[in-house]
Amino acid sequence: MTRWRRWGRRALAALATLAILLSFLPAWQTDRWWVRQWDYPRLQVAAVLLVILPLLFWAAYRRTAGFWALTAGSAAALAWQVTHFVAYLPPYPRQVASTDRCAPGETISLLNANVLQTNRDYDAVLQLVAAKQPDILLALETGPDWARAMVPLKKAYPYRLVEPVPSTYGMMLFSKLPMRGEVRNLLQPAVPSAWTQVQLRGGQWIDFYALHPEPPWPGDDSGERDAELLTVGKQVRAKGRAAIVMGDLNDVAWSYTSRLFKRVAGMHDPRVGRGFYPTFNANYPLLRWPLDHLFVSPHFKVMQVDLLKDVGSDHLPIYFKLCLTDRAGEREVAPAVGPATAAEANEEIGEGRQESHEENRGE
């Protein structure tokens, strides 16, 4: 065996070992940023494992115990990764039913756009809004410059909640439909969320929440993000009305927190059975995952989901059109939350609030 082949085998073994470790690392239930980050690229790590497996057979001239251990570990890691995202492949049953017919007064269209605060292509966003004509526009990472650039929308969108903070957590919510509500800072003074009600053209009021929590990042774990999402989930469950949660959640749909949120809130994900619709990073097609989300209560059906063209941001905009069903007047119809799920959510919220308290005190 040549020296280069030996080095190649060692490199392949090291890569397989790393892929196995990174696959199972997020199973550790911790808020540590360097663990939670590996919830994101499950599809990419699975692709690496899919390449590694045949290479292991090709590179190994002897079937040693080490070879079989590495092969079995790679196969198990690949299977583990697939279990997290298989529900988003089109053959999988849809979690939210589709419909082509809906009474005009029961439809609502929504556009979520993280515009990137440093992006100056204001016209691209304005042209996109003009083309799609959403009933609700949620623009995120909107600082004072973006607030000035969005002034032309005021006539078409008479109902607004605007919080153009100078950080990357500015939020602007525009609505053609009657809207009432407020901006809240649940955990951090510079991280707003919108808690509103929107009246459809048929007269029905629905709850609408817009979120953009902080991501897990060096020096900032995921506790606050998780607590904000789960706090809203408990609110949705408590009210039991038709509800929509939308925003850049800085989390993927298959993460532990997102799945816990859906159980707590009794909400569904339109992506399930339809596709990944990856919105981030717009600049790297092979390194994208779905960070921008819309969740709905069981009172809705889906008419349209579109991943839209780049507007100069690192996120792609995403558009939804929904139909409010005849169950709109009912209280929550999702399965009841079990005591274990409720306890999990309360623990996560408590940990996130403690993390926020320590951060605000500078500890």
From TrEMBL:
Residues 333-363 are annotated as: Disordered. The chain crosses the membrane at residues 43-61, 68-89. SUPFAM superfamilies: DNase I-like. Residues 112-315 form the Endonuclease/exonuclease/phosphatase domain. Residues 334-344 have a biased composition (Low complexity). Signal peptide: none annotated. It comes from the Bacteria. Coiled coil: none annotated. Keywords: Endonuclease, Exonuclease, Hydrolase, Membrane, Nuclease, Transmembrane, Transmembrane helix. Residues 350-363 have a biased composition (Basic and acidic residues). This is Endonuclease/exonuclease/phosphatase family protein. It comes from Sphingomonas rhizophila.
